[in-house]
Amino acid sequence: MTLALFAAMLAADALGSTGLEETSLFYVGIPALIAVTVILTARPKNAVGVALATTTVGLALAGPLLDEGVVCLIVAAPLFYGVAAFVGLVVQAVRRPGHRALVAAPLLLLVALEGVGGVTVIPRQDAASATVTVSATPVHVAAALAAPPEFGPYEAAFLRSLPFPKPVRANGSGLAVGDTRLITFNPRRSLGLGSTSTPRSMELRVVEAVTTAAGGRVVFDVTADSTFARWLDLRSAVVTWTTSGDTTRMTWRLDYARTFDPSWYFGPIQHHAVGDAAGYLAETFADMAEAG
């Protein structure tokens, strides 16, 4: 187990120093390395169990030694366990006579190489949106969007359980092109030894704005981001609203680029999180518009 952890830490450090810490080579290769090392060196009776136990210890050490945060470890843990268990079963099968499980090795290698050199299975560019019905006029919705938002707690279980960065306050107002917003989030607290909390914020600028009595469209470009840049590349927020009878339909769309691989794992997770964030923003401004 000690040798496997040592090899995993060396691999993590090497991948981090070469800019490959967000690729499948990190998130698939390292748990595979742990499983193979444990099985080939210790030859335990329950290889999969030992591989999973070693992975657990490795994840526990990743926070203090690699300066990772809680969110990263929670999100990555199922992938690490899944790869470790899969590789453990394959290696166990290979060691038995008559089994051809070795054919899985090329497949695992292909999966582990996603992200290296920019190669990806699923396109990195993505968007998630949320639509709400607001019991207010389009004029009131525009007024709410022009004002600094009043942030409340997350309602989405996914954002609450991670825990996702929480917006604390906002500075800036207006919907004219060039108007800005500075959103301050709760500080980042990593699990690194001797680490201190670091401030997080996001700056946005209005680059397009059309408002009428019947609706409107506003585009905010993200000009600086020290909050979500560790997980994804948030590009812009597009808000559209239009009258619908006695109410107003408002849609928030967040455009972003996925930065983590493998895409089949991190793609759906990031899309779901961004969708929940869009819903949170839509509900926040809907409440402000309805309050008048």
Could you walk me through the main structural features you see in this protein, from its secondary elements to its overall organization?
The chain has helices spanning 2-17, 24-27, 29-42, 47-66, 70-94, 104-112, 138-146, 157-161, 263-291, and strands at residues 125-134, 167-171, 180-188, 198-212, 215-225, 232-244, 247-258. The chain is α+β, with helices and mostly antiparallel strands and 292 residues long. It has two domains: 2-118; 125-291, START domain (Alpha-D-Glucose-1,6-Bisphosphate, Chain A, domain 4). A seven-stranded antiparallel sheet has the order 1-7-6-5-4-3-2, with helices on one face. The radius of gyration is 23 Å and the shape is elongated. The N and C termini lie far apart (61 Å). The model has no long low-confidence stretch (mean pLDDT 84).
Describe what is shown at a glance.
45% of the residues lie in helices and 26% in strands. With 292 residues, the chain is α+β, with helices and mostly antiparallel strands.
